Design the sequence.
């Protein structure tokens, strides 16, 4: 599991174009690495479209956006095309990244238990260190860009 203060792994996986994505490709920029359950579902579409709609603002604030799900490259291509998503999506079909970040586990819906991705966003600084984690209970899909841009309060 990846925690605040940890360095994220360099190899993130394969993107929608079948190319390897390395965190080092984004050195000097902050990264919002967001894990989501499934392409084309209501909550995931709302989240992706919110990030799309605020993409320019996020970039101006120094953020790169990278989405991760266990869907395959073809599914990501359709999702990007249908919703005009301007950012990279990682196809974590072998579940290596979701397990490494600790966001894969047992979920339940309508009494049925199944394995899936917990919607979680890791905010990485310019050196790839985890600065903040927006947990599944905290993520609000329709205002997620605002959550990424929020300055955390220190108690």
Sequence:
């Amino acid at each position: 599991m990846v925690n605040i203060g940890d360095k994220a792994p360099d190899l993130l996986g394969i993107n929608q174009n079948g190319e390897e994505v390395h965190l080092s490709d984004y050195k000097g920029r902050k990264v919002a690495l967001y894990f989501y359950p499934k392409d084309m579902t209501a909550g995931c579409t709302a989240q992706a479209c919110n990030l799309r709609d605020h993409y320019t603002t996020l970039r101006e604030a120094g953020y790169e956006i990278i989405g991760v799900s266990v869907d395959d490259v073809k599914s990501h291509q359709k999702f990007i095309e249908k919703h005009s998503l301007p950012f990279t999506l990682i196809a974590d079909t072998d579940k290596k990244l979701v397990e490494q970040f600790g966001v894969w586990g047992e979920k339940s819906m309508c009494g049925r238990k199944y394995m899936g991705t917990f919607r979680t966003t890791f905010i990485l600084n310019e050196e790839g260190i985890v600065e903040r984690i927006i947990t599944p209970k905290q993520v609000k899909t329709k205002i997620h860009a605002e959550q990424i841009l929020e300055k955390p309060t220190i108690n």
Notes: The mean pLDDT is 95. The CA atoms of residues 109 and 115 lie 11 Å apart. The two ends are 25 Å apart (CA to CA).
